[in-house]
Amino acid sequence: MGKTPVRMKAVVYSLSPFQQQIMPGLWKDLTTKIHHKVTDNWISATLLLAPLVGTYIYVQNFKEKEKLEHRY
User: Fold this and answer.
1) How far apart are the first and last CA of the chain?
2) Torsion angle in degrees (nearest 10) through CA of 35, 39, 43, 46
3) Any idea what DSSP says for residue 19?
């Protein structure tokens, strides 16, 4: 039994530089999507952001007190 050659077609995918519609649904109306995510999960967002904001404020206050302490 001999082997017979089989012709294969190559398929090449590329993006055109003139067509900039890559994932258009992701960026469309992004602010409304973020607003809905936060309002639907406001408890989780609060539990995430409260410690971060509190820590940032504490550190800024500590640094300012330290600067004033070493001023004189």
Assistant:
1) 98
2) 30
3) -
Paired tokens of 27: 């960026």
- What distance in Å separates the CA atoms of residue 22 and residue 13, rounded to the nearest whole number? 14
For residue 45, count other CB atoms closer than 10 A to its CB. Answer: 13
Amino acid present at 64: E
Instruction: Look at the chain and count its residues.
Output: 72
**pLDDT (tens digit, 9 = 90+) per residue, 23-43?**
777 778 889 988 998 889 889
Upper half-sphere CA count for residue 44 (Cβ side, 13 Å): 5
Note the pTM of the prediction, 2 decimals. Answer: 0.45
Residue 3 main-chain phi, psi, to 5 deg: -90, 135
d(CA 15, CA 13): 7
